[in-house]
Amino acid sequence: MALQLSTEYTGETFPSQADLRKLAKQAGDALQALENGTGAGAQMRGWLHHANGFLQSAEYKRIVETANELRKTTQALLVIGIGGSYLGARAVIEAVRSQYANQLPGAYPVFFAGNTMSAAEYANIGALLEGKDFAINIISKSGQTLEPAVAFRHFYAKLRANCGGDAAQIRRRVVVTTDSETGDLLAQAKANDWKRFVVPGDIGGRFSVLSAVGLLPIACAGVDIAQLLGGAAAAEEAYTSAGAKLEENPCLYYAALRYYYYAIECKSVELFAFYEPSMAMFGEWLKQLFGESEGKEKKGLFPASVVFCTDLHSLGQYVQDGERILFETVVGFQNDPNNITVEIDDPGDPLYFVQGKQISDINATICRATSMAHAAGDCPTLMLQADARDAVSIGWLIYFFEKACAVSGYMIGVNPFDQPGIESYKNNMYALLGKAGKQYDKIRAALQDAYQI
Ligand code: PA5
């Protein structure tokens, strides 16, 4: 497996040789800070050299055993988590197995809850679980996040009823993934003697997909997690050092180019584009990875995502012709195992020009045609091509983007591993929901004053 980065469709908007030399130095320095642990948030780099060691670990073996056991003894898994505690797992399952993974013949369905406070979604998930002997994997690093904590209480009550309240039966169906030392969830898990997996202290939520956080649900869905970790380990080996030229390290080159578009060309949005609908959730994972890592101190590219051709007929107009604030990063695959050919018998059919062509070749042609049009319209397009949409390539892509994201954060001068901004909504939410505590009383009073409530 190798990931190709092509700059063929960047049009006029490309750094000069002098710019490239400067960018190489900046990106190289950022990479060095990351590798040496001299950058901000260095204690959160547990993901950086993780995959190989984890493959040999007892925790890895326990994940495989637990997944096999759950698949054998229950009919579905409900994953409860939000943000980094669910996006990676869902992205990988859909990318490798397809967005229809749960409906495929013989599938062991994996559902996701706790990432919304929509009552309709509670009801929908409840309906999907109706009559099923399901297990729960509750995932929360902090063990305190409100959305998954509420969902857990709701669905745990159903699971307990399914088990007739039998503690031993419940224990076989509840798995907790949380911090090893602190949090309400840890206390609850200990009190009930539930099976536990650890969110490593040195890996933040959005970088945690290749730990137990992502691997247990992914293995339950039938994806080969050894291959996934193998792809990440190979990528780690490929992107460790800065070469004399940026092209020698595509991960660094990508980070440098996205910095160039942001800082020099004033493009404020990176549009991740996929030509495979099953990659839509991978786009959501990327949005969290880059959005939470870079978006701080009034800085950072805004990450957006599209699935083409679908979105060519909705957002395509804006991308081509709207405000020139976008550059595009296409994530595609060289090989598609599906041999599906267009068959048109009538030479008089106006579509006869596509007769005999492979659907996947038409898709690739549309990708090229679109990228050419976008480049000509001052939306430079970076093209990333992996081998195939399989576990190895997805593991590789995960590592590639995590590392590029950390380097990018250092290039714009922020700590890519914290997320102080999300506390603001949480504080207001707790205050308005009536959580006890002096700090919430104060916020509640201020909000009541400002909004006359
Ligand atoms: O990347 C992050 O740290 C966040 O997105 C968290 O994953 C998210 O807020 C959920 O937190 P927790 O796992 O503590 O419930």
Please give a handful of descriptors for the protein shown.
453 residues, alpha/beta, Rossmann fold, 2 domains, 5-stranded mixed sheet, 5-stranded parallel sheet, 10 strands, 48% helix, globular, binds 5-phosphoarabinonic acid
Instruction: Give start-end ranges of low-pLDDT stretches.
Output: none
Radius of gyration: 23 Å
Average the pLDDT over all residues and give the rounded result: 96
Strand content: 5-15%
- The span between the termini is 58 Å
User: What's the number of structural domains?
Assistant: 2
Total count of helical runs of at least 4 residues:
17
Number of strands: 10
Report on this model:
- The structure is a single chain.
- The chain has 17 helices and 10 strands.
- With 453 residues, it is α/β, with parallel strands linked by helices.
- It has 2 domains: 206 residues, Rossmann fold (3-Layer(aba) Sandwich); 178 residues, 3-Layer(aba) Sandwich (Rossmann fold), CATH 3.40.50.10490.
- The protein has a 5-stranded mixed β-sheet with strand order 1-10-9-7-8. Strands 3-2-4-5-6 form a 5-stranded parallel β-sheet, sandwiched between helices.
- Helix 14 links the parallel strand 9 and strand 10.
- Helix 4 runs parallel beside helix 9 and helix 11 packs across helix 15.
- The longest helix has 22 residues.
- The radius of gyration is 23 Å and the shape is globular.
- Bound molecules: 5-phosphoarabinonic acid.
- 5-phosphoarabinonic acid binds next to loops.
